[in-house]
Design a protein that fits this description.
about 70 residues; about 50% helix; about 5% strand; binds FE2/S2 (inorganic) cluster; iron-sulfur; Bacterioferritin-associated ferredoxin; metal ion binding
Length: about 70
């Protein structure tokens, strides 16, 4: 399933990047996949996929007040 329409990234692309880099950073996932954030609408979804892949529940992903920019910095 495509999770980032700007960069045409799938959920599997994100999981592969997290597994390869063992990163918890959205920016590092983009970088690992050779792209960067454009509109930022996918940030929450990518954050959730990272959290699931690493087996952790991060508070920022469940915070409805956190903006996409906050998530990109996380
Ligand atoms: S949907 Fe991912 S940057 Fe726009």
């Amino acid at each position: 399933m495509i999770v980032c329409s700007c960069n045409v990234l799938s959920d599997q692309d994100v999981r592969s990047a997290v597994k390869a880099e063992r990163t918890c950073s959205i920016r590092q996932v983009y970088g690992c996949l050779g792209c960067s954030a454009q509109c930022g609408r996918c940030a929450r979804t990518i954050r959730r996929i990272i959290d699931e892949a690493l087996g952790s529940a991060r508070p920022a992903s469940s915070n409805p007040d956190s903006s996409a920019v906050d998530l990109l910095e996380y």
